[in-house]
Amino acid sequence: MKVFTYKNCGSCKKATKWLKEHGVVFEEIAIRETPPSVDELREMLTYQADELRKLFNTAGGDYRELNMKDKLPAMAVDTALKLLASRGNLVKRPFLLGDGVGLVGFKEADWAKALLLLTSIKIKPVSAA
After folding, report:
1. Could you give the C-alpha distances from 39 to 24, 35, 44, 82, 84, in angstroms and in order?
2. Between 51 and 117, where is the model more confident?
3. Class of the domain covering 2-116
4. Alpha-carbon distance 13 to 68, whole Å?
5. Do the bridges between strand 101-104 and strand 95-98 make them parallel or antiparallel, or are there none, so unpaired?
C-alpha cells in the first residue's frame, strides 16, 4: 500500500499517524518529489467514481495559479491525469492506493470503513488510554 504525502500537510500527518496506530503497513512517498503515475491516477479515478475533480488539491496554490477551476470542466481526462502526474502539488493528499482501495483526503471514518473491508488488512483497535 502506498500513501503519497506532503511533509507540511496536517491531514497527511493525521493519516499516517492513524495508519501506524492501527498497524497498517504502508510505503510513504513524498508527493511533490514523486507524484503518482498516470496509471496510479487512473486507478484512483475509478475509486473516486470517475470524479476527476476529487483528484485535485482544489485549495492549493498551483490549482489557483493554473486557473484549474475554469479549465478542469472542459479538460480531457488524459490531459488532466498527465498534468497531475507532472505536478504533485496539484494532487489531493493524502493519496492512498493499495490492492482494493483508493482514498484521497483524510476522513478517519471513511478510511476505517474502506480499510476494514479489506481482508488482507487487519486493523488493530486503538487501546483506550
Report:
1. 24, 11, 9, 10, 11
2. 51
3. alpha beta
4. 26
5. antiparallel
According to the model, what pLDDT value does residue 119 have? 45
pLDDT tens column, 43-73: 999 999 999 999 999 999 999 999 999 999 9
- The domain limits of the chain are 2-116
The three three-digit cell numbers of residue 63, written as one number: 490549482
Q: What is the pTM of this model?
A: 0.87
**SS3 category, 15:** helix
Query: How far are the Cα atoms of 6, 59, 129 from residue 35, in angstroms, in the given order?
Result: 10, 17, 37
Alpha-helix runs per DSSP H in the chain: 10-21, 38-47, 61-65, 68-71, 77-86, 108-116
